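Allow me, if you will, to draw on your knowledge of protein folds for a short while. I am sending you one protein, given as its amino acid sequence and as whole-number tokens for its backbone shapes. Kindly check, if you would, that the fold set down in the tokens agrees with what the sequence suggests. The record follows directly beneath this note:
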Amino acid sequence: MSASGSRDALTGLRFLAALHVVVFHFGGVWFENLPGALQAISACGYASVGLFYVLSGFVLAYNYLTPEGGVKAEPRSFWAARLARVYPVYALALVLLAPTVIQGSLEANTLPVAAAKLLLGGLSALLLVHAWLPPVALYWNPPGWSVSVEAFFYAVFPFAAPWLGRLRRGQLWGAMGGFWVLGLLPSLVYLGLQVDGGLNVLKFNPLLRLPEFLMGLVLGRLFLGESPSPRHSGALLAPAAAVLLLGAFAASASIPFELLHNALLAPAFAALVYGLARGGGALGWVLSRPLLLRLGEASYALYILQYPVWKASQALAEAVAPWVDFRAPKPLFAVYLGLLVGLSWLTYRWFEMPMRSWGRKRLQGWVARGAPQTPSASPGTP
């Protein structure tokens, strides 16, 4: 498989990971009468968020590091590109959910309390810092907490990447193992101490999810440092990692939630990403098919719009009930999923891409002001 085909497989993988999260949130009813293993797979979609973190680190390393470990972009250029990439659709979801959130807050609280919650929740969500504040991490658009975590990763990347770039291959493997231990440690401490209120900190705090992202960075650095035609293909590694992950998902009811939510599966995610980047064999071929590629390109919109579209689907079901009644859980989810997939593609094509270009142009001045200044040539210098 070509290099572009390998990247296409990773794009297709993004769709499946996003779909796993959506099924976890809204589609469990479709699995309630199926074998227990399939129910467990549908009920542990939260674990796939960790795949996004590992994959994010890998892709950023691939795009912004040289094979020698140098960084290709200045920090401001990098931050502008990431902001233009993630913020427009993220802000769109906040706007779409605003009426529901405001109405719900006013109905559940006195006016002063509602105003305080709306101010804190809205402002922290707009600034992408709500994951640091567990009481409001899920307040406005619940999936948006992971974007807040990613924003922290983006802030860290220009400083972590040069340090990782200087490590030798053996040190990189040591760093990979060390980051995994660091990712597991908070969960193990929580399981031992059971601190009141600690679970939400464990789940959402960006600092505690950073090791998963750093594992992805190390993985990307290792990938770039290999020869263009390595002896070991990903044809076996990717399917083996996929089978391991499916087995872990199927057994998720027997695994402590805290470990499965944070970092436990990060090495398997890393093996899957690495194997697909190395070709992935038959699995890589399937994931790089045009349909999955298109769905993968729209996977961010699918992920971040899942709650607004759910609210819209419920409203639509009520509105058309006198003629077509799909308010029951199973048909409602079927209609919802079709709408979500279609609207996510339209959003990607007609909103996300144009707004990404517009945002990068708008940020060019800020980027230029932070660029290193080249000394002017003296009059006698050719």
